[in-house]
Amino acid sequence: MKRRLPALAEQKPSIYDLPALEAILTASGLRRPALQRIRRQWFREGVPFEDVDWSGQADAVRGAFTESHLELVERQDSAVDGATKLLFRTLDGRMLETVILRIASGRTSLCVSSQTGCTEKCRFCATGAIQFFRNLHWYEILDQVGQASRLLAAENRQIRNIVFMGMGEALRNLKNLRRVITDLTTGKSFQFAPSHLCVSTLGLADKLVEFAREFPLVNLALSLNATTDAVRQDLMPINDVFNLAQLRDALDQLVQIRDGRETMISYVLFGGVNDSPADAEELARYLTGLPVHINLIPFNPDDASPADLSPSTAGQTATFQQVLRDRGYAVTRRYSLGQDVAAACGQLANRPTAC
Ligand code: SF4
Questions:
Q1: Which CATH class name applies to 70-341?
Q2: pTM higher than 0.90, yes or no?
């Protein structure tokens, strides 16, 4: 059932603000067992608002809080794998996408967006080609989690992992990201283990170190994608600001800050650009001595992708992986779910089915 969202001017505090929610419920006379039940049902179990046992306070809660910050405009389910893309509209009319990933192992991950569009313009990414509007507020990011968990509860599934790899560069929205990570992992609401969250960055070296100091237990993924500054600069303009040497310095700092925990290195493979055995050797050299797990990601082109970028062949990918393995690295070849609904890595561009 579609609910009418309030206009921006009518917006009340967010229902995801647990201290404010509990203050109202406590003032209404609710005791600890009722508060615990409400927290569990609303934040953790994905119970729809109408079915939460609010102890008679549902109208008071609705009157005081904004229950939903995002309107679900369209849901696209993959016909070939366990991906579902959710297209949302914010109260001020901005579009964003969230992807549910039902992984073959039975676990469910959620890929959330942190911005509407993206400022970074990586050449291989559909999000980089659309207009950037703004950072998402903390409650808009939490609403992606809340709405997805309510959809999944109907399938008897729960979100196990949350990855900040959707639209936008999460570390450009550090203020809201801080609040989201804190609310997801501490206190009594969502209660995710920090190790079940992963923040991905294209390489904002200073913010990466700053974030790791604050949240050393949250997983980090660095999108590297090249072994020379020339190639990386061509793929990712950010390399003008933070080059490979600066990123290596940041990776060294992470080892100390995060007590030797692994950092994920994402490497999208492009045929004839960054996928030769020599590139693999250079990547192995660049990462020497670091606790890392390398994820090789297939390039997922679409109609708007640059003509000079194409996916690496299966043979090139296998050779690249083997070179790294021979150098002692843990390497995983990732399969991107949701390609048929443009929900795979690098494909998010706010496109409804009709487009
Ligand atoms: S890859 Fe990430 S940082 Fe780069 S344009 Fe796409 S969303 Fe932005």
A1: alpha beta
A2: yes
